[in-house]
Amino acid sequence: MHADKELDATGLACPMPIVKTKKAMAGMGVGEILKVSSTDSGSVDDMPAFAEQMGYSLLSTQEEAGRFVFWIRKN
Fold first, then answer.
1. Which of 61, 55, 2, 59 is nearest to 30 (CA)?
2. Domains in the chain and their CATH numbers?
């Protein structure tokens, strides 16, 4: 999957991965995809709730080598 922008939120604790994701998405256009990497286990529950609340599409959630990777499309 192609990401238009990537956000490295590794090492950040709640709520910072969501705060940084919100800021990154604000600067993106409709249809663009953001790839977010996080080591915060709370982001597994927080990111889907955030995407739903904001009207974004959470396209994929993966765990890769201790990181949680989220693909979010701005609608």
1. 55
2. 5-73 (3.30.110.40)
